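Figure 6 in text form: structure in, sequence out.
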């Protein structure tokens, strides 16, 4: 499953509107507004992009990703943020992002490409550049600059250019003011061109010993995340294939995985997951995908997502996304 850290979701929602509205938006993607922020808690990428598109219909989002990016701090990212700010140089910090970004998203890859005078920091993200992805890309590059400014001794980061593949909004003055350099839209890349003099100066909080300790910790997290992702993906795949026969039981899925139900429950619980939550997320995302295809009737989609009656499907879908399947389909087709 393509996913992003709930940290980004919560930051976007907090910047978008009043507390009451924010709470409803968080619930629509399965997050509890009262929970503490945990960067390891994930939200599906499609749900995140859809959420951003909903926000864009309600407010002017021109500077939303800039405000969100500016609010980011290294400490928001947990161990990864600490490793970022204790690296010897900003170049070392970005090398850690390049290596460990999978801990907070599996839809983006980062690449640092050095040159003689300047270096590119690329954001690689596949898929159509809809409003949701556009806002997400802008916020990602804006947050990149924010945490770079945080660790640089003077706070001044020399940017040559910022590039974005999507078209420019009507007003780009706030982008130019925030980044402090030319911002090129409709480019062939999503990237920031840094001056090497900025990347190679010592970080304000450089600590070689602590950085090495954190790198070991992050390597362990990365290995653990890979195993958890494999298990989650296998469970979700089996659930999706079973739904047309009714809602599968954990015992049945465990048997098909070759383990006991108790072992499956224990492995999921150790990573803060539950079989019920994975099943619910699978049904929701399968329903969203089928509703985008006009060849399936609502009754067929209800059946394929494990509901005995269309009315039950309608109620569940409205609970998931805040609107009926019919309204959702009209907006997507």
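Output sequence:
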């Amino acid at each position: 499953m393509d996913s992003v850290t709930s940290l980004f979701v919560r930051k976007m929602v907090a910047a978008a509107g009043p507390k009451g509205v924010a709470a409803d938006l968080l619930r629509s993607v399965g997050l509890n507004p009262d929970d503490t922020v945990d960067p390891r808690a994930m939200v599906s990428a499609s749900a995140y992009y859809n959420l951003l598109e909903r926000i864009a219909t309600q407010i002017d989002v021109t500077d939303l990703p800039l405000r969100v990016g500016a609010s980011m701090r290294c400490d928001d990212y947990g161990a990864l943020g600490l490793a970022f700010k204790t690296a010897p140089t900003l170049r070392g910090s970005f090398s850690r992002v390049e290596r460990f970004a999978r801990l907070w998203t599996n839809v983006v890859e980062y690449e640092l490409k050095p040159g003689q005078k300047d270096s590119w920091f690329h954001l690689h993200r596949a898929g159509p550049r809809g409003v949701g992805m556009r806002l997400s890309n802008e916020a990602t590059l804006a947050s990149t600059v924010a945490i770079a400014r945080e660790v640089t001794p003077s706070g001044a980061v020399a940017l040559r250019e910022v590039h974005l593949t999507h078209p420019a909004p009507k007003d780009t003055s706030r982008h130019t003011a925030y980044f402090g350099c030319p911002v090129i839209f409709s480019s062939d890349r999503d990237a920031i061109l840094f001056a090497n003099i900025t990347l190679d100066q010592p970080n304000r909080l450089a600590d070689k010993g602590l950085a090495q300790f954190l790198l070991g910790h992050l390597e362990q997290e990365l290995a653990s995340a890979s195993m958890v992702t494999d298990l989650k993906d296998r469970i979700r795949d089996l659930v999706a294939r079973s739904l047309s026969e009714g809602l599968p039981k954990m015992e049945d899925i465990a048997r098909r995985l070759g383990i006991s139900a108790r072992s499956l429950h224990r492995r999921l619980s150790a990573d803060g997951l539950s079989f019920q939550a994975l099943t619910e997320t699978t049904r929701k995302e399968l329903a969203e995908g089928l509703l985008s295809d006009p060849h399936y009737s609502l009754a067929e989609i209800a059946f394929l997502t494990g509901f005995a009656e269309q009315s039950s499907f309608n109620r569940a879908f409205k609970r998931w996304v805040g609107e009926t399947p019919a309204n959702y389909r009209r907006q997507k087709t």
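Caption detail: Residues 3-206 form a domain with the H-NOX domain fold (CATH 3.90.1520).
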